[in-house]
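Continuing the series of single-chain predictions for the mutant panel. This is the parent chain; the variants come on the following pages.
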Amino acid sequence: MASKLENIGLTSLDDLFKTDAERQTEQGERVQIVPADKVFPYARQPYSIDRPTPDLVRLMDSIERNGIAEPMIVRPREGDTYEIIAGHRRDYCAKAVGLETRPVIVREYTDEQADILVVDYNINREDLLPSEKARAYKLKLDAMKRQGERSDLTSAQVGQKLETRYSVEILAEQVDESRMQVQRYIRLTKLIPPLLAKVDDGTLKFVPASDFISHLSEKEQTYLAFVMERDEAAPSLDQAKRMKQISEQGKLTEEVMDVIMREDKPLERKVTIRDDRLKRFFPKSYTPQQIEDVIMKLLEGWYRRRQQEQAR
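Parent structure:
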């Protein structure tokens, strides 16, 4: 990471990635213990802090037993307080288990440097959601762009040039993604929150969402989210593409969207039976699969009797 940043002409970013030991030796840094109420999350940090992943559970257990083993990296802000650059989840876990202090290393960073580092400290986590990558890539790319001449992200020449290379290409290399994939993730930030949540849970597929749905207006997206909930359906790649095309013509009304969402994909009939209606018919030891098997056998018997009656 350090060597890549060194080669792209950014403002002294190679110094940001020295080890704590090197930094403390050169600058006389030391770990400080500060009150928890003086430490605040970074305002633009792009990751979910409290999502209950196995990794977070292990971290909380470790902090509860041993405290915060690795100091948090912070930068000073007004009022003798600090802003977290690295350690948001450590701070969350420490707060959850009731720790009243935080071990920190205080460093001075510009907004651009802070944006880049906040992204880089967690970008390689394997459990990142599409929405987290989207916010992270956009935050870092915007910071890189502010350090050079600005250009249109969606133009043929994406991003601004840094020593004959475009910032989006540099970013793609650093995060081990293709340039197109990085652009797709960033397009997700144009989705309204309910649709972005559907990308995270897999209900709305990544490519239709990024390439087409993200181009719809907020009003159009809001109605699409309503239709998806109402009909328990998601647009296919072809349906998303047609909606974008019709939207560009200014003709994507609610009626047109309804037609598109219903064609070529007949709605499935789904029936949900509440547990409180089922439990009086089945022993507590029955699994959901056993219950389903019994219901299907009963339905098959009912269907055969119905067919016999109709044949008389």
